[in-house]
Amino acid sequence: MKQRTLLLLTLALCTQLAFASRETNNFSNLVDTINLSKDTTNISPRWVIGGKENILFTQAAFSNWQGGGEAYMGGLGNFSIFATRISKASTWENKINIEYGGNYQKSLDRPVKTADQIDIITDFQKNINEKWSLRTTLNFKTQFSPGYKDEKDTIKRSDFMAPGYILNNNGISYQPMKGLSIQASPLSSKITIVSSQFLADKGEYGVKPAIKDANGNIIEHGKNVKYQFGGNIKVVYSTVIMKNIELISELNLFSNYLEEAKNIDVDWKTKVDFKFNKYFSTTVIAHLIYDDNIAPITQFKEVLGVGFNYSF
Fold this sequence. Notes:
Order of helices and strands: HHEEEEEEEHEEEEEEE
Number of domains: 1
Helix content: under 10%
């Protein structure tokens, strides 16, 4: 608990320093793409393509993380690529982010997963003026392999496409300053897919569970898909805090109009890179999730890693 509190205070301090900082040099490719739509008044249409890869030696701590995992010392790899078309009238961003990490303990007969993510997004903005734009976003998320509650658990808690998410946000975007984007989407949908019938029958991730008789025998299998329609707010902030220290934070809030609209799903991820040089850095990642369809409890994951990175 003390470690988690210290981490959150550190990230809060970094955020405050970020707003106070005037430094804008040495942005990574990923940070640059977030700001491409800031000023498109004097440019001809063009594509910007790039990416980034990280290989980290990591330490992590978990609290109620439904995707599975345990505190560990291990390794983590991250690969991201983007292709963005910018013009005076619009901006079209396409991104793929893949992350996987794990370790192996002598006391276990299988590897322990510590990070697992497939995240694909396409985002189109039609510019109204320099700060405002109409915006539509399509996002797909899932993972590669099975997840377990802890190292002693042999019962799956998650798997590839269990869950899988398809999210569509439609609304308006406001960019009051470089590096800060606020997207309000009153017309949003969230499709949750649970391809594992074992998990679907248990009603995991909010799908309708199986119907059973008095003896526990399944009469009707659980549903594999849950549809939600609601509103979403997305806030992204990125900056260079000071020389060789970069921060990016993304907050997503979703409310389901059709079912308990007062229950807000929260997905907040913050990443701070401390760069030693072009190829080596220390990375701190904090990820907080609250979704009562998964579990009525706050999930938190922290990762601290030192390793190699390369941008192209």
